[in-house]
Write a structure and sequence with these properties.
Layout: H1 4-8, E1 13-15, H2 20-29, H3 33-41, E2 46-49, H4 51-56, E3 57-61, E4 73-78, E5 89-93, E6 103-107, E7 112-116, E8 121-126, E9 129-135, E10 138-141, H5 152-169
Bound molecules: glutamine.
Glutamine is lined by residues 17-20, 50-51, 54, 79-80, 108-109.
């Protein structure tokens, strides 16, 4: 999805990992920031992971001063809060809506959620920090769910997105 016209064709959006400062810049260069904000205000469901979560958050710490925080997820995140690339790690983490079988979470230069506000439901934590939140039609993850064969979080997103879109179509 690179242009405002392509955004029009999308019902729900995955904001993937990558580099949030670059993604932020590209949103501006391609004229996507305003249309994206508009769609988000209209309730478009999202799954955001890692750099995507940073873009979706209310507050970005240790970011570039001009980087976009879309302010949808009620979280304050610290970029690279788990350390540098070499400090990337994996952990088996229980995720509340997924039941007892833990999720293998792959953290790659991951953002640290320092604070989750009342609007963000924490659905998984690692140590004392949230690593997954759900908020209305949105799911935000500090880790990369696409790095394993476990598709439960993608399915959860699809289920929640479908439910949200059904309600808004009704
Ligand atoms: N550290 C990256 C950033 O600030 C995120 C890393 C990732 O998406 N795996 O955007």
């Amino acid at each position: 999805m690179r242009t405002p016209a392509e955004l029009d064709d999308v019902d729900a959006l995955v904001l993937p990992g990558g580099e949030s400062t670059t993604m932020s810049r590209l949103l501006q260069v391609f004229g996507l920031e305003a249309p994206l904000r508009e769609r988000l205000a209209g309730g478009m469901p999202t799954l955001s992971t890692c750099a995507g979560l940073i873009l979706m958050s209310r507050e970005v710490l240790d970011g570039r001063p001009d980087q976009i925080a879309l302010g949808i997820l009620d979280v304050s995140v610290r970029r690279n809060g788990y350390g540098r690339q070499v400090e990337s790690f994996e952990a088996d983490i229980p995720v509340v809506p997924l039941g007892v079988a833990p999720f293998r979470a792959v953290f790659i230069r991951a953002p640290l959620i320092e604070q989750a506000g009342a609007d963000a439901e924490v659905i998984a934590s690692f140590g004392s920090n949230p690593v997954a939140v759900a908020q209305g039609p949105h799911i935000g993850l500090c880790f990369h769910p696409e790095m394993t064969d476990d598709s439960r979080l993608h399915q959860l997103f699809l289920d929640r997105a479908a439910a949200a879109l059904e309600v808004s179509a009704a």
